[in-house]
């Protein structure tokens, strides 16, 4: 089994996600995985977040290593999902996997053809780096 990369969350994101999970009685496929990720995360004040870490509302470019396909997604809260294919919910498997990763981190993810390896290539927008510490 591949070791998971360390993850870092802002205290604001952590608190909002914990609150969402507490309020949500609905089960979703990645709920247990998201809870596990929150439990293992290093939590920092938003002003101390490194600019190379995926936070909520970050726009991330990543590559599926097996195919070389590059994609760009913005990680959002479920309420912000509006049908835009450039957004991914933090409740979706890829959203859960991206949360808290740093540029250069790789993770394994299931796909229709089996496991694929995904690498975080860059963060083109991160709210904390843009000075939006209380978004």
From TrEMBL:
Keywords: Kinase, Transferase. One of its GO terms (molecular function) is RNA polymerase binding. SUPFAM superfamilies: FKBP-like. The keyword Transmembrane helix does not apply. The keyword Transmembrane does not apply. Residues 5-43 form the Regulator of nucleoside diphosphate kinase N-terminal domain. InterPro entries: GreA/GreB_C_sf (IPR036953), Rnk_N (IPR029462), Tscrpt_elong_fac_GreA/B_C (IPR001437), Tscrpt_elong_fac_GreA/B_fam (IPR023459). GO terms for biological process: DNA-templated transcription elongation; regulation of DNA-templated transcription elongation. PANTHER family: REGULATOR OF NUCLEOSIDE DIPHOSPHATE KINASE, TRANSCRIPTION ELONGATION FACTOR GREA. This is Regulator of nucleoside diphosphate kinase. It comes from Melaminivora alkalimesophila.
């Amino acid at each position: 089994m591949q070791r998971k990369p360390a993850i870092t969350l802002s205290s604001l994101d952590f608190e909002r996600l914990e609150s969402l999970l507490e309020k949500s009685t609905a089960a979703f496929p990645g709920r247990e995985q998201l809870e596990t990720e929150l439990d293992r995360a290093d939590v920092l004040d938003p002003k101390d977040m490194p600019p190379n870490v995926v936070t909520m509302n970050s726009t991330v470019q990543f590559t599926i290593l097996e195919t070389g396909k590059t994609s760009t997604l913005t990680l959002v809260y479920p309420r912000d999902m509006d049908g835009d294919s450039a957004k991914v919910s933090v409740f979706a498997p890829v959203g859960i996997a991206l949360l808290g990763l740093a540029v250069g981190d790789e993770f394994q993810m299931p796909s229709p053809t089996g496991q694929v390896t995904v690498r975080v290539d860059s963060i083109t927008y991160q709210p904390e780096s843009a000075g939006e510490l209380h978004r």
